Amino acid sequence: MSKGVHRIQHTLSIRERLCFFVLRKAMVTIMLKEGKVRIPSGCAIAAVIAKDGERMSGRPIIEAMKPMHDRSNGLGGGFAAYGIYPEYKDLYALHFFFDERATRKNCEIFLKERFEIVKSEIMPTRKIPTITDEPIIWRYFVTPLRSVLDSMQLDEKEFVVRTVMKINTEMPGAYVFSSGKNMGTFKAVGFPEDVGEFYRLDEYEGYSWTAHGRYPTNTPGWWGGAHPFTLLDYSIVHNGEISSYDANRRYIEMFGYKCNLQTDTEVITYIFDYLVRVQGLTLGEAASVVAAPFWSTIANKTDIEDKEKHTYLRTLFPSLLVTGPFSIVLGFNGGLMALNDRLKLRSMVVGEKDNKVYIASEEAAIRVMEPNAENIWAPAGGEPVIINVKEGCF
Amino acid sequence: MKYIDAKGLDYATLNKILRQADGEIEVSGCLGQRFIAAGMSHKKITIKGTPGNALGAYLNGAEIRVKGNAQDAVGDTMNDGYIVVEGNIGDAAGYAMRGGKIYVKGNAGYRAGIHMKAYKDKVPVMVIGGKAGSFLGEYQAGGKIIVLGLEDSDRPIVSNFPCTGMHGGKMYLRSDCSNIRFPSQVRATRATKADIDEIKPYLTEYCALLGLEVSDVMNAAFTVITPDTKNPYKQMYVAN
Fold first, then answer.
1. What is the ipTM for the molecules in this complex?
2. Which residues of B touch A368 (CB under 8 A)?
3. Distance from the CA of A198 to the CA of which of A143, A146, B211, B230 falls in 20 to 30 A?
């Protein structure tokens, strides 16, 4: 990254706001479609997790996004929630966007060839004036057909991954945006606090929640492009932009992943699925791949074992180093991981109170969820913060 | 004293009320409102709660005291005045600051004092009572950055890559800095009596404002860092 770019990237607040207003006006005047015009970004993320597995409604995380309203521009908002479908906890919950009824009907024929569909329903939503032009939003609780798994010689998770990739690539107008067990992603074009109302998230209860307010940089603001990006139970909310996107994409697509949702963040989700599920790395090791320290920092490490580990990981997975500014929260069944880029070009703070841990782009968001949060601190760049729910509590 | 309840106010409304008020003002219930007191002069503002990013941006003589933590970009491009924070501050504090003082009791995040500058009688000063994150004084062009390291923890007084691109001004770290790696384009030396005399007035003021004993602050060795004019800064990321 050039020095100039590097310097500009943390001046977002005032200067970029001015830029945004000018651009936004220009966009409206000449009616360019979003995606054809570049609007600089802010983005907001927040998360909360109860280490004892206590289930919380979606209300606090919706409220937490409000003081960070100006970090988004209404072109995307979304949430991931864990532990929300206990009655179907052994089934994959597939959340879909469809462009029209015929697409859904065709897709259902395809699904029935591969899965037993235990429940199929329209996603419950609330009509509100701030969320418009919604696609058909549907959810299915499914289990893969044993016979199909046997004939394809695949394990269940790999089978689900391949099915998601196939639908998102080959079926125009159909997108799976959530595919994990006992978790779900809810996203839309709009401000995050409105998206939360739209999906009635106050009526769900989960032990962990993540949230995102979007301010798209280089890519269109469409329903499928809102965060979180999910595959199986891995979900990513991301503030930043990936300078290494194409290098990362080319590498990860060699392993069957397809980056077709028109947003850079998508590749981070697939990288974690690949490193953790397929390669069997720990979360900490995966973080050391994605936000690898500078070679000079590795060379100066005095802990020999740590030094060797970092050298090994950077050598083995050089194409999965994600450069450029980012703060992300990775959600998964039973936990969360927060991570900043190694130069820490995006903000992120962590706080805690009793059994809960809070993460957000701004301390104000944490104070909304817990006014008396303690030990507020900012993790260093590349230093993962991993929070696990106690074994057996989720 | 004028009291303002900031609960539910957006930043534009809050700043409008602040602009119209004179003298001493107390803002309570602050929660993430950005740009508080931007460009303001001639008033004293006490803030309770969590002020948003760019607190005191372009500040032009007003005095701000935060009874807690502040977020990112405190005192962005400030010109004159005081920002006193009783807790910690986020990243990029004092960005391109060109005058005035930022006094922080706790720790600072990444890139404190980035591109701080000075011109004639305009000499900005930042004092951080705790420890500083990486890239302290990045591209520093002028002014004084002082870190006291009074926080009790194992981490070094400043994290990785301090003074990257520094080409002006002075930095003082209350430590022998034996565990700190500085880039080759700066010189780090033990502070002399003349160096210490130069910052004593600021430390005295800092201690008075934050209720500390100046003798407790002055009782340790300081390292002073200045750019090495014989070996000027080139480029960290790409040599071109």
1. 0.92
2. 31
3. A143
